[in-house]
Every structure is written in C-alpha cells, then in structure tokens.
Amino acid sequence: VSAALKQGQITPTELCQKCLSLIKKTKFLNAYITVSEEMALKQAEESEKRYKKGQSLGDLDGIPIAVKDNFSTSGIETTCASNMLKGYVPPYNATVVQKLLDQGALLMGKTNLDEFAMGSGSTDGAFGPVKNPWSYSKQYREKRQQKPHDEKEDSNWLITGGSSGGSAAAVSAFTCFVALGSDTGGSTRNPAAHCGLVGLKPSYGLVSRHGLIPLVNSMDVPGILTRYVEDAAIVLGMLAGHDPRDSTTVQDPVKPFTLPILTDVSKLCIGIPKEYHLPELSNEVRALWSKAADLFESEGAKVIEVSLPHTSFSIVCYHILCTSEVASNMARFDGLEYGHRCDTDVSTEAMYAATRREGFNDVVRGRILSGNFFLLKENYENYFIKAQKVRRLIANDFVNVFNSGVDVLLTPTTLREAVPYLEFIKEDNSTRSAQDDIFTQAVNLAGLPAVSVPVALSNQGLPIGLQFIGRAFYDQQLLTIAKWFEKKVQFPVIQLQEFMDDYSSVLKNEKLTSVSLKQ
Known about the structure:
- The protein is of the alpha/beta class.
- It has 18 helices and eleven strands.
C-alpha cells in the first residue's frame, strides 16, 4: 500500500475514504468504539500535500491505522471499554501513538476490547462483544454451507480472542493496515491467531508503555497487529527505543528493524517445549505444530525437545501477580479526578463504593477483590512474594534453554481455532483466560519477545496460528525467522468479497500481492 501511495496509484485521501467506507460496512463486527473520521481525513489531506511535494515521511505516511482503546489519544475519548472511563478525553497521546502519527499514519479510530483489557475473547466490554470477520469469510461459510452474511439471522458468529479483539478485527477486515493492541498475557497474540494475523509482543522495555492505561505494569507491552511479519518489523522499528517518560524502556538507542532475507536455516536450533504438549490441545493444532517442526528440520535446522519445568505453575503465578497489580492500578478510579462519578453524596466512602460498583463490571471487580486478598498482610508472603519467586524460576527456565544453544522456541498460540460466541460464554472469564492464554502467559512473566504467525486454515476454514518465542531483545532475530516461516507456509488471505466491492481499486495493481484479496 505504501508503494502504491509513493507511485501515485492512489492518494492518502482516497485510501482513507475506502477504509472509512469499510468501517461503516463492517460496523456489525463492533471492532471500533470510536471512529475518528474527521481527524483521519485531515491527516490524509496533510499526507497528500507531502506526497505532492515529494516529501513523504516514510513507509507509514498515509497508511490507515487503528489503536486499542486503552491507549491515551489526545482529544479522542479513551474508554478502556468501561463505564468508568466513558467520556474521558486524555490531554496527551501515548508515546507509541505519537510516534505513529509523527510518521504520517492516519488514525481511523479506537478499537474495542474486554473491559480494562481483562479477558481473552473481547466479549466483556461495556460496548458489547467483537465479532470475528472470519465468521463471514468465504472459506468458513463454504465449509459450513451457510448463506452469505445476514446479521439478523446469524447468531453463531465466532469470537476474535482478546483482549485486543477490536484491533485484530479491524486489520482482518481491511479497515486499516496496522493496529496497536496491548499484551499482558497474550492479548495481542491470541486474537492474531484467531483472526489470521501476525501478532507481535515485543521484549518488555523495548517499546514505551507511557500512555498505555496500565493493567499489570510489570507485564504490559504495546503489541502490533499486521497482516505480514515485515509490516510488524517496520512498525516495531518506529516504536522501539528509550522514552524518558517510561523508566522501564531500554537506555541504548535502537537501530531500525530491517529484516535480512534468511535463505539458510541450517545453523538454527529450534526448541519444542515438551510441557506444551497438553491433552486439551486440539488435534489440528497439534498436527500443524508438528508439521512446522518438520518443515524446519527438512530445511536443515536442528529441532530439539526442550524442557521448561516450571510451566505448570505459570497460570497460578500469573493470576496472583496479575490481580495484585490490578488491585493497585484500579485504585486510581475513585470518582474524584476523572471518569465516572455516581450521584451518591451520603459520604465520601459511599461515593467511592457506588462509583466503583457502577463503573466496573463483574470481571474487573472480581480481580480487584482477588488482588486485595493476595496483598493482605497475612497473605502477602504466602501468595505475592511466593509468586514472584516462581516468576523468577519461570524466567530462568527460558534463560537456561536459550543458553543451551536454542535460537527460538516454537509453540502453539492457542489450544484451538476460534469458537462460536455462544460456546465461549458458557465458561466464566477467569476459566476462559486461564485456558486461552496457557501458551502465552509465561512469555510476559519472563519479559521475552514472541510473535504469532498464521499457519493454515482448519478443517472448518478458520485460521490457526503458531508462536515463536525469542531471547530477550533479540526481536530482530525472532522476526527474521518468523518471516522465513511465513513465506514457506503461504497462509491464504481472508475472502470477504461481499464487503470489498468498492475496495478493489486499491488493490488492482498486480505488484501489490501482499494486499491482494483474490488469492
């Protein structure tokens, strides 16, 4: 798309209008909470002037993007999909948002999520659940022998995964070409796997968290959702680096993430963690995981089984540390400074209680209660401190494996393909999160980079993704290997022709195979 803009085959304004048209056509997906149409068109106008002068800012100039609604955006409502922050308009941009805008990106809007990013389905937000675009794809419909989309009749739509489901749906439905998510335990990689996208969780500290409304400060990382690995690498190169407003970011300057073309994998060592062979893993995912390992082996790479012995403790460890930090972070929402405030004026305490009861959903309140329990004086040593020690053991497991000569780990991203909404909501939020993030949470506990890459369609015509995990701050190596793998597997593009009629002009150029809708 960037090439088309540079060659004058399409203007930023035309591209922006096409994406805005698609956002309206796919409104039933509920991917966006706020659409910033006026701002996007103004940014497109500015971009067009730069292109006419031959002063393009780079690969992102004029490219439509979307941002998860837990990143602060100056002058645009930022709700975290909650009643608590309905109407809250930040006075500043998150660092990552500002960096993208400085590169000339067009902000199409803010995307839907689970309330305060607590969930794995994008079904628990105050603005309703997000629908997976693959529910309406030709590939899935043909397998189910369904009629084309009729939103009134269709109740068996699929979840996107979460919590960055809105961002994943936005990219998957071609309403933008890059979207920011956040990743605390898999919230970018999980929806990427379910929506047939690349979902990148960078190394902790590589990308600034300033302006990302915190869930778990020690695990949160801004995530990147794109259709291709190369795109994710380009965006990461623009976002990475020290930020004086985030003391956890790397101090050294970061070089651009240009990915070398990998032709020979014979010097690589790929690790397969034996603890990830879970009985709950679907047969299809297990078979694709095995095929992927065989692919590396057939090309000369060394593929070995490795052990991450403390993996079985990661779910409990994650739950204790996550809810403890949530309890602390959510304390700021008291109805005094910003966000929702109830009408109760009996006493300050009554106002606090009523505000938080009205502003938070059951999931958020449940996690606050759990976290405060773990932080009680009599429980602190037995729960929080013990979980921190286990976290160190989990991190050391990865260090030991990488020190043994392994370059990357290859694992599933999720237990199975996307499931219908009605099936998903049979379980409670905590159970769902524990199951759906089982392969992804340990990466956040250890602060490592990981990327989910779409591999193939299941028998039902739905995407399945596999995860590559790298050594801390070896993001470039991780993405180089992921790009090689992506090229080998040739994942098919989603076919959403009934929404795409007016979009074909963007994609007429045969050279633009990377965005072709008719593969």
